[in-house]
Amino acid sequence: MRQHSGIGVLDKAVAVLYAVAEQPCGLNELCERTGLPRATAHRLAVGLETHRLLARNGDGAWRPGPALGELAAGAADPLLEAASSILPRLREITGESVQLYCRDGSQRVCVAALEPPAGLRDTVPIGSRLPLTAGSAAKVLVAWADPELQRSMLTEAVYNERTLADVRKRGWAQSAGERAAGVASISAPVRDQQGAVVAAISVSGPIDRMGRRPGARWAADLVAAADALHRRL
């Protein structure tokens, strides 16, 4: 769950930005996602559009605007800076798609991704918001999350509490056909300087290539990449 600043109009504007980032939408759906009154949602969306933080699709739906990318380009994120040197090497070793996920409330967000130059691949665009109920990265992020979040996820997840315990014990997670049919993945936790898990680094690709137990092949390389990220942080 996102934090509240105590500044009502700011929190509402941020809620609008997140709602549109999830998927372009019109006013009715924006109201449903944010819980804001119609007039308030419209006023905030139009204001954000004026500042180019939102823009419109051809059908009139709001989508993230160009100013967001311009602002992001000037932000220095140590995690992304570290990933820019680690992910290419991991892609080279595995020949598969690689991603970096961070948790945002009850979702995970792809903050970095690289795809192999050719062949069938698992494409996860940067900015994609995926559930924490399935997939190897979800298991990693939930395994080291607070107990309250774990309990809320386990009510709908394809994995169980024993699975999370196994993930914590061996230091990585794997999945086959959980998030998307025909896709396998393996993920490991990325820790900050204090040892807290701040992200999950993943390798994903077709089950036909990676197998239903990709950990047997790529666990060592993935954990080494996660350790390299930790050292750079």
UniProtKB/TrEMBL annotation:
Domain IclR-ED: 67-233
SUPFAM superfamilies: GAF domain-like, Winged helix' DNA-binding domain
InterPro entries for the chain: GAF-like_dom_sf (IPR029016), HTH_MetabolicPath_Reg (IPR050707), Tscrpt_reg_IclR_C (IPR014757), Tscrpt_reg_IclR_N (IPR005471), WH-like_DNA-bd_sf (IPR036388), WH_DNA-bd_sf (IPR036390)
Top-level taxonomic group: Bacteria
All copies of domain HTH iclR-type, residue ranges: 7-66
Entry keyword set: DNA-binding, Transcription, Transcription regulation
Annotated GO MF terms: DNA binding; DNA-binding transcription factor activity
Gene Ontology biological process terms in this record: negative regulation of DNA-templated transcription
Gene3D superfamilies, sorted: 3.30.450.40, Winged helix-like DNA-binding domain superfamily/Winged helix DNA-binding domain (1.10.10.10)
Record's protein name: IclR family transcriptional regulator
Record organism: Nocardia speluncae
